[in-house]
Design a protein that fits this description.
Elements lengths: L5 H4 L3 E4 L5 H6 L2 E5 L4 H6 L2 E3 L4 H37 L5 H20 L12
Parallel strand pairs: 1-2, 2-3
Helix pairs in contact: 4-5
Amino acid sequence: MPFQAPSARAPTLFLGDGINDAPAMQAATVGVAFGVQSDITSEAADAVILETSLGRVDELIHIARAYASHCSSIRHRRDGIEYLRNVRCRVRLPAPIGGAITQEIIDLAAVLNAVRVALPTHTLTDF
């Protein structure tokens, strides 16, 4: 059986703090570096935690999960807005001004939906 990287079989998280950890961080799905002992380690990692505390890793995981679900809901709304835009392109409105106003409303909805990414989600309490 040929060699298969662990990240190819299942999602992996690798924590490391030294130069020798850089290759494993690159191979993992997510690499997290503790501290900033080495520029190589910091470059290889997906996230860098300045404090060497496992509590911070737990906090990082919770923030990532909350952000992922938040972005997923925004992406679904964006798809709905794009559907409205496509419907608007296929439907002939009686006056050009009606089409322009409809397009502006759809554009405003898209911009407001995108701004939601910057808004805080719920507070994290279990880390």
